[in-house]
């Protein structure tokens, strides 16, 4: 993985929050593969399959969506040529000022359109010091 790849992948992960917070759900293809698996089972819902399902879920949440998606502490590990595992911390701010913390576990692959997230698992953080 080159330094340019690291920058591109980190920017990709960061772009997700900007697109969601701006309501630009029609641009999610710039972050996720068409056949992305977005695993929200740790939040009590079934995994979402594909961009359309991702967009529909966000629209269904409506005003319950966070007003701010923030990503920090991005760690990238190359596992094969053109495939990277990314782990990052996510902070969501709701309209009422409450916040939530999670970990994104991403599989990112390079394809014809560049790097895209092909699988994301969200693990909410509810207890300190690694307790689940």
TrEMBL record:
Pfam families cross-referenced by the UniProt entry: SnoaL_4
Domain (SnoaL-like): residue spans on this chain: 4-120
Gene3D superfamilies referenced in this protein's UniProt entry, alphabetically: 3.10.450.50
Superkingdom: Bacteria
InterPro entries, alphabetized: NTF2-like_dom_sf, SnoaL-like
Protein name (Swiss-Prot/TrEMBL): Nuclear transport factor 2 family protein
Organism placement in taxonomy: Bacteria, Bacillati, Actinomycetota, Actinomycetes, Streptosporangiales
């Amino acid at each position: 993985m080159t330094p340019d790849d690291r920058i591109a992948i980190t920017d990709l992960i960061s772009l997700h929050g900007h697109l969601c917070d701006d309501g630009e759900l029609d641009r999610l293809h710039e972050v996720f593969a068409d056949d992305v698996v977005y695993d929200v089972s740790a939040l009590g819902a079934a995994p979402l399959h594909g961009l359309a399902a991702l967009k529909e879920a966000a629209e269904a949440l409506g005003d319950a969506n966070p007003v701010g998606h923030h990503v920090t502490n991005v760690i990238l590990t190359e596992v094969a040529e053109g495939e990277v595992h990314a782990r990052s911390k996510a902070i969501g701010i709701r309209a009422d000022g409450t916040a939530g913390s999670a970990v994104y576990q991403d599989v990112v692959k390079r394809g014809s359109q560049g790097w895209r997230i092909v699988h994301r698992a969200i693990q909410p953080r509810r207890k300190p010091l690694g307790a689940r």
